[in-house]
């Protein structure tokens, strides 16, 4: 007999994607803990550097700060949970914690794309309208764009979870190493038409609006580069390269996650499926701060000032004030 239950009455979910690793679980725990420490360290360091140094209180670095906060947010939604599950012999998660993780993980993904879209708009104004940049990108507008980025992300995911919570479920088995919304929806034995339509609308609005803005801004940037001077092209390349790399990394990770969730992956090795599930929650938070820290000249100068001698520290203080 099929047991039907309301998702609000399910006390726990079972995660079946974990391997029986035996004594190797301590090695896996060490590797994952090291990755989390590195992610937290590099992101926090960049956030502190941007906030402390007045020379970095510019729109581009404010948007970067928002991006790094999101990397910390998404990583914290995964890694502590993942570390506990690696050491555990029974891979279960309570229903409230599962829905909390769904909220954190999906908000991170939406906010990541929105942040990248806003950053592309900022680069468009800086390259195409350099003389009017500070007028068009005022501190008030920067604050408004950052608030809009986070508010829209939280609003969309809250709607999805509020629709998933009342679903009537026929089981509590999730074939992943963490909770996600679509895995819970697939457990439903009640009609999920409304949930699917609202999820499609919410995802489409978020994705299409962000992708359209990114494509439009880069088309205009390319037009200016082809018709502008060599100095303009060099400026565009130096400021847009890390952003394009971040965008490509995120696009690949989002594609992996969609393929993992929507396609039949039964014939794919379990380790590959785990890698595809975790890529978008590990690689962007790890690569983005390293990418921007190494690519942007001002941040490189401040990094050198932090690790060099007392004389260099005086130079850093002059740069700060």
Assign the CATH topology: Rhopdopsin 7-helix transmembrane proteins
CATH class category: Mainly Alpha
Q: CATH H level: which superfamily?
A: Rhodopsin 7-helix transmembrane proteins
Gyration radius from CA atoms, angstroms: 22 Å
Q: What form results from the Cα inertia axes?
A: globular
Protein structure class: mainly alpha
The averaged pLDDT comes out at: 82
Counting copies of identical and different chains, the oligomeric state is single chain
CATH architecture: Up-down Bundle
Kindly report how far apart the N and C termini lie.
72 Å
Stretches where pLDDT is under 50 for at least 5 consecutive residues are 1-5, 309-313
Instruction: Count up the helices.
Output: 11
The domain count comes to 1
Number of strands: 5
Largest sheet: 3 strands, mixed
Assess the beta-strand content as a share of residues: under 5%
The percentage helix is: over 70%
Write down the secondary-structure element order. Answer: EEHHEHHHEEHHHHHH
- Can you list the strand order of the major beta sheet? 3-2-5
Organism: Maylandia zebra
Domain G-protein coupled receptors family 1 profile: 42-292
GO molecular function, one term: olfactory receptor activity
Subcellular location: Cell membrane
What does this entry look like structurally?
- The protein is mostly helical and 321 residues long.
- It has one domain: Rhodopsin 7-helix transmembrane proteins (Rhopdopsin 7-helix transmembrane proteins).
- The protein contains eleven helices and five strands; from the N terminus they run E-E-H-H-E-H-H-H-E-E-H-H-H-H-H-H.
- The protein has a three-stranded mixed beta sheet with strand order 3-2-5. The chain has a two-stranded antiparallel ribbon with strand order 1-4.
- Helix 9 packs across helix 10.
- The longest helix has 35 residues.
- The radius of gyration is 22 Å and the shape is globular.
């Amino acid at each position: 007999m099929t047991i039907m239950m309301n998702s609000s009455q399910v006390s726990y979910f079972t995660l079946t994607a974990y391997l029986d690793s035996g004594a190797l679980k301590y090695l896996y725990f060490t590797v994952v803990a090291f990755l989390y420490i590195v992610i937290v360290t590099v992101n926090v360091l960049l956030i502190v550097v941007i906030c402390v140094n007045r020379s970095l209180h510019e729109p581009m670095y404010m948007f970067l700060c928002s991006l790094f906060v999101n990397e910390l947010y998404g990583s914290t939604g995964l890694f502590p949970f993942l570390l506990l599950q690696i050491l555990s012999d029974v891979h279960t998660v309570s229903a409230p914690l599962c829905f909390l993780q769904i909220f954190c993980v999906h908000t991170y993904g939406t906010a990541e794309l929105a942040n990248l879209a806003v950053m592309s708009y900022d680069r468009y104004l800086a390259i195409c309208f350099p003389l009017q940049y500070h007028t068009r990108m005022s501190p008030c507008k920067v604050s408004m764009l950052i608030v809009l980025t986070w508010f829209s992300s939280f609003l969309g995911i809250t709607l999805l979870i509020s629709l998933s919570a009342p679903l009537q479920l026929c089981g509590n088995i999730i074939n992943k190493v963490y909770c996600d919304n679509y895995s819970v929806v697939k457990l439903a034995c009640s009609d999920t038409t409304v949930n699917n339509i609202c999820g499609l609308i919410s995802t489409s609005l978020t994705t299409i609006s962000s992708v359209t803005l990114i494509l439009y801004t880069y088309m205009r940037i390319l037009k200016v580069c082809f018709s502008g001077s060599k100095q303009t092209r060099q400026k565009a390349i130096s400021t847009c390269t890390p952003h394009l790399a971040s965008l490509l990394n995120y696009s690949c990770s989002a594609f992996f996650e969609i393929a993992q969730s929507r396609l039949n992956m039964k014939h794919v090795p379990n380790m590959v499926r785990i890698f595809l599930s975790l890529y978008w929650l590990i690689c962007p938070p790890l690569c983005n701060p390293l990418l921007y820290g190494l690519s942007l000249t001002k941040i490189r100068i401040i990094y050198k000032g932090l690790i060099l001698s007392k004389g260099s520290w005086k130079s850093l203080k002059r740069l700060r004030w």
